[in-house]
Amino acid sequence: MGQGCFPNPPMRLSAFIKKTNAQNESTTNKRNHHKKFYGAWFLCHPLAGDSEEAIKANLKKAAELARKLALENPDAVIFSPIAACSFMKEPEDRELALKYCEYYLASGQFIGIILPPGWTESRGCIREFEMAVRMNLGKVFLNRAGDRVNA
Predict the structure, then answer these.
(1) For all residues of the chain together, what is the average pLDDT?
(2) Cβ–Cβ < 8 Å for 10, 19
(3) 10 Å Cβ neighbour count for 6?
(4) CA–CA distances in Å: residue 18 to residues 11, 13, 31, 60, 106
């Protein structure tokens, strides 16, 4: 992984993620949290869990968040790769699902990614984040209520 794509090259990815996540979750930008999405956005939501119940809970959270964002942003396309790959089984097909997610993200259709809380604990979300950084896509961080915390 090249360090040139990160704002502070000497910083390790894990430190960069922790710093970015802490900054974005601790300070809500009230001026921008109400802005609508336009264009196509990739919803980067964790799926894996320690149990079947945890996976089902993540599926439900991802679907609810995608629906909320789609209804609040009628001029945008909110793409949920979890929904698109719902025919795959977790954890057996995890690598194949990640391949599909990376293919979708690399398609050039998206102007940015949406990162809800918990994304930093997901290896798949981190891979998608790294890819979005390399592609210079926009990044929107959400708080627990599903509202923007940055522009």
Answers:
(1) 80
(2) no
(3) 18
(4) 11, 9, 24, 26, 25
Average pLDDT over residues 92-118: 93
- H or E segment to which residue 23 belongs: helix 13-26
Q: How many CA atoms lie within 13 A of 96 on its CB side?
A: 10
Taking a C-beta distance cutoff of 8 angstroms, is the pair 1, 13 a contact?
A: yes
- Which CATH number applies to 11-141? 3.40.50.10400
Its sign, for the CA torsion 70, 18, 102, 55, is negative
Cα dist from 74 to 32, 50, 111, whole Å: 18, 35, 16
* Domain segments of the chain as ranges: 11-141
